[in-house]
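Check this:
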Amino acid sequence: MKITVINGTEKHGVTYRLKEMFLAPFKEHAEIMEYYLPRDCPHFCNGCTNCCLKGEQTCKDAEYVQSIENSLLKADLIVMTSPAYVFHTTGAMKALLDHFAYRWMPHRPAPEMFGKRAVIIVQCLGAGAKSAVKDIKHSLSWWGISKISVFTGALMGDIVWDRLTEKKRTKFHKKMKKLSGKFLRINYTKPAQTNLITKMKFYFCRMIQKSLRRNDPEYYDGKYWSEHGWLEKVRPWKN
């Protein structure tokens, strides 16, 4: 089993501890690849649109983005973590997600993503967890991932792990153990089921791509959809 983890911060705080709790049961029998932001993707997307119009290899940060993407495509389970910064995910996580604009369904989604499973772990001080989760989940769903589980830890007091009460730590540990158990029981030889909402998004994008393909046969995204057979009867969730 392969797990790819994207950490929205390099800080080893509460979010890091929660992620470690989740991963603990997997460590003996899973190959875990972790990335820490911004270290492993240090630059912002500058909106040049080269990735969408000319191909992902033309991105100025392709060496970072492609390394992470290769790991994501090979993973059986994707784990995304982030503390909530002013009610949203970290700037470093947002910068990475911007780099993957070309993998959104209106452009060139990777067929592998339609069978993936993902976990989002977010921690906040009091409030903001839901909006931070939404930042990440929005991208994952438009990549084609249907099976996304979420853990949110809201702290009303100190956000330093060593200062948390034993009661609070135990509560987090029990919840994480339950979530880990859920994903340990999955048979990863079978892809996750693609839900109706994801299929509807696909068919809407397919309609757009068919129109663009007719008007411009050399349009980059249209050629990609055509090569995969998606403008005909092939569907990514049936591969």
